[in-house]
## 1
Amino acid sequence: MKSKLTDLLKTSVVLGDGGYLIELERRGYVDSGSRREKVGTGRGSGQFTPEVAIENPDALRELHREFLRAGSQALQALTFFGTREKLNRAGYGAQTESINATAVKLAKEIAGDRALVAGSVSRTQLVEREGMGALGTTRDHIAEQIRLLKDAGVDFLILETFFHLAEMKVALECAAASGLPAVATMSFRPLITQCTDGHTPAECARVMADLGAVAVGANCEQDPARMLPLLREMRAATSVPLAAQPAAFHTTEQCHSFTCLPQFPDELETIQISRREFEKFGQAARAEGIGYVGGCCGCNAAYIRALADGLAASK
Ligand SMILES: [Zn+2]
């Protein structure tokens, strides 16, 4: 019998997984969109969508297996950018149900009784494209995806890579209505001082905790060392466990966001950080009040193994 996420968070640091899309792009199964348009604006059309779940399920199974072998206690179903809104723009709108259901089925198949399965829900990109007036439509799309994920049997949700706190609030309200526990992480760009609609990390943490998130934090965009100061601001603002899934790419003093750097997406190899940075982050996680730790873009299983080593060394 698997423990529930909320029980695990009470007793230990939970090791997650990730990241899926960049790794599967490198392996040739995901389209970055860079041959068609400028990537990194936050408004991308069909970029980095998760149709690999139905088109090349074995590739996705294999990556789940690698993360599980590395020690992940929770596998994320590859449902990132899986709202009908985003899939429509990639030409996969009609497959919204099958992509979400299949992604969860594959993650559950590999997890068995050894790991929890999370449904990943990300921003729709509607707010970036159309402004805050689109929040109502955003709610419909996020609610639909969460319903699909719940029907497919996920254990909890990871709401991740939201740029606007306003859209995260919508997602947390949809999660609460579903009854599923939710981990909530914002992505800060181009600097870690505030999110796109102008809220500090501390404000984001308070709002996400107030709306019922079981862990709050940040994912993507920064490497662990660059993310740490914003996590500390969040730590000081709330008592719920922190969640951190950093990227494995160097950023600069002027730009704390790898997706805003010219190396994204076709020269990421030149700004890759070593897995040792993740081992150090794992060592520090407990002392920093982080309850859920994993990786995001640029991490493969070696990085999750390094996190596991770091966590084990800090016991
Ligand atoms: Zn990422």
## 2
Amino acid sequence: MFQIASEKDFLNTFRSRDRKVVEPPKGTRFPLFVRDYLAWVDPYGVRVFLVFQAPGQQRPIGIAFRRDQQGDKTLTSRLCEWCHAYGSADQIGLLTTDLDSKRRVGVNLCLDLRCGERLESTANREGRSVLDDIKALLGKMERFASEGLGLDTGLKQ
Ligand SMILES: [Zn+2]
């Protein structure tokens, strides 16, 4: 659980290059309390936003992803690299974000980033706690931010 005090703090979780495209989810009030992470899709369905705070971190990190439509829609089943859910091309696909003005990085994910809910329903079905899975999920988000984007996530090596 973490807290974001104001809309300014909220926007500041994102890199400056992303801030111009970020809109908080409709009806967001501050201070905002987030249980594990916050993910939402923009009204056009083009961008997916993520705000999370990995275990041990001091501050939340925001990432603005774009849903890049890619070729092969006939591929029947895809795997989300964060929650390992399988789904069709409508559910799982490449989400990309700017590394700099020339390069983008991408990862195959649930297009709505509701990985936590999927992990939770799997854990419920199997009658076990989801806590370790959520921790691992936040760790993968952190790794993408630090290794994929080179962000300072506040974790000491
Ligand atoms: Zn997922």
